[in-house]
Amino acid sequence: MTGIELGASGRHRDVPATPQLTLSPHRLFAAMACGFALLLVVLPMGWLFIGPSIESGRLDVDFLAEVFGQRRLVGALLNTIEASLATSLLATVIGVALALLVARTDLPLRRIFSTLIMGSFVTSSYLVAFAYIVLLGPNAGVINQALMRLFGLDEALFDIYSFEGYVFVATLEATSLVFMTVVAALRTLDGSLENSARILGAKAFRVIGTITLPLTAPAIGAGALVAFISTLSLYGAPAILGVRVVPTEIQALLGYPARFDLAAGVSLYLMVLALGGLLLYQRLLNRPGRFVTLTGKGTPTETLPLGRWRWPAFAFAWTYILLSLFLPYAVLGYASLSKAVGADLSLENLTLANYAFILRDQLSMRGLKNSLLLAVGAALVAAMLASIIGFMAVRLREQRTMRAVDAVLMLPFGIPSVVIAVGLILAFIRPPLVLYGTIWIIGLAYLTKYLPIAVRTIAAVYEQIDSSLEEASRIVGASPTTTFTKISVPLAWNGIVSVVFVVFIPCFSELSASILLVSPYNETAAFAMITTWGGGSFEATCATGVIMLAITLCVTLVGHAAFVRSAPIVIR
Amino acid sequence: MQSHMSGRFFGVAVIALLLGAVAARAQDTELQFYTSVPRELSAPLAERFTAMNSGIKVNLFEAGAETVLGKMELEIRSAGRIQADVIWLEEPAAVKQFADDGRLEPYASSELENVLPIFRDPQGRFVANQVAFVFIMYNAKKMSSDKAPKSWKDLTDSRFAKQLIFANPRVSGTGATVASAMVQAYGLVYWESIAKLKPILVSGSEGMISTIVQGERLAGPIHNYTIGELLEKKQPIAYVVPTEGGIALPAYVAIARGTPKLEAAKKFYDFMISKEAAGQLVKDGMFSTRTDVPGPKGWPSIGEVKTMPFDWTQHARAKAEIKAKFADLMEK
Questions:
Q1: Which domains are seen in chain B, by residue range?
Q2: What is the DSSP letter of A439?
Q3: Which B residues, 246 through 305, put their C-beta within 8 Å of a C-beta on chain A?
């Protein structure tokens, strides 16, 4: 993950004004793309402030104070902060250790490990929570029972229905986020300093402690903050495990009878918290001197031999994969094929009936269809907007307006999905534009939430593409539009395709925003899954999870095979 | 020339066919049907109705009662009316509230006279066609019948520490009703005692079933139809009718005011309280409110089930507060 430019720092150079001000179609189109993207951010956030006043017909700020009069909400806020801090801390320790092992040592099977951790990255934490009910339920949990038999215990060791249980599940997901951020930094870190230290006789641990870690500190901090922000958003896992956090509380506030003002109030506090995190993240990545060490191509580091720590390290790394990927999917797969997951292991207990139920079920099929539509739609629109905006963000970096647009566009990256959803409901529940009750409002939420990541990913691609080809094209007289479509887009093509998947995968299984935004007949797959679970069919719920995974894999693999070009596109 | 003519003829035929198809489609009415009754029960009814009335398709939206009510309220705010044509909800107080707010269409169905009077609205705005009862279900493999609870009060006994499961009243309509029923009978102290036993709370009104069947938790309040179904599947469970009585949950049918498909909605309403639908409901383990239909297999008739007194209006008034107190007591 690359740095997110938030503040406009540095001096801007004066740009010749006359040719810039002509209103040409491409300029208009680019401005429209930026305008639309800005609207996506400003509308929901603004409505959080003015929504309660519009609702009560007078200037209303009482709701901001009233939040603190509600013990439940204060409790939920504290719980959320505590859980996010704990998760972030644990995930950072584990994630950094894993990243160091993979990027710097001779850990066995480290390449397979890097691939598999992607699996943990794309697995929604509510699926993991479902699986751990079966494994770590305090009475019938399979692991608990085995341990109780093994050690002759009267009481279960673990209780997944607890604050700690929730932090455990959240940590499994957050660790992969930290890992990805830190491993990317380690791979681009110039190795010459580390190599010199080793030549001078420093031991492996000393090199890591005094050189590698300090140099990657900004990335580690950024990873910790990404973990913190993403945990603030979680709805599914705490709802399933019965832990009260802000997202579950907001869902209850929008029940019957609805309390929009309190929902807006508590959303605002969550937003302030998250934006604080985002600002910090921004400052960490913009620390002076970053570009000295984090270059695109540097001296590769020598691999540190783990020696007798090789196998303990191996066990540590693979325990993480076991806990975050293998065990959850084994449970989901087994449960989806069982008549009753609690029954004794036997062939007689196996059935395809759960899949048959889902395939016949109106709600589940509608949910899968809607989610596929929403995720593909959001991914394509995001990729399109991002390839224009990301391009401008890099090539027009010198212009102050562009930097400001870019900074505002990044905000939703730090705003929890549930907060975006509340803002969208307030904005689109009344005329002139009533989108509540349609599928469009869900699409807007996805686009708002994932556009920043899309823009950043594409901007990173353009950073690496030299602008000389584009300049050449302009010199021979091609219009900016032609240059963009014939030169810039083809050069960044694989980056644009990967953005489609980066947006598609989380949107397809999205729950935190859609739980609030779904309306009858516009259900998402995750909502259908939660409803099926609420209806008491755990096994059919797991079947939905497996079908969702299969669709994600199919779309990703087929899309990858069809659209990723191995050689640069021939420019005609 | 010949081929040109036949080509033109072909084109005209295609257009005629397309128009015919569009006209046929236009005749199809789609009824939007919101319910809190689980799909296993509500979907077959909707399909049966479509089979009997070709051209009227029923689109089912099912979610927990509180979720459906929440969506309906948001629809009234955004679109000015409930977007459903027909609703079927196990939440009498909310249905009555919607009726009093003028959100439901009065309809004097000719089928009404066959329904027990206590289940009909005098103004014809809603009618209950089925009643489910909540009893205490327990895992019979892990708990013998002499250890099993005998009454609702019995659940507060310390032998049920870490053995109970309840539906979260904030999400589940049934959960909220059970919470209120106990407060009406014993006061909040009932839930204070329960909280000390560290029960599990789950979101759906029946999210508890698999938990009890698996033996993760041993007892909890469960609908009679679920109990019947599990017993039929030979699952290791048993139930008790608590000495205070079961909690009766009537499901009310109503037509949303302002529906553009009033005629079709009335047909569906008639069907929902018909003997035909009652037969299906009873087969699925529900109690019909019709005077001419017996109770479900293995159960007495509706008049003979011991029923706990319950004040729905009081429930509507105190619900929010009880939910908040409940959350303070139970949630981590």
A1: 28-131+248-300 (3.40.190.10), 132-247+308-330 (3.40.190.10)
A2: S
A3: none
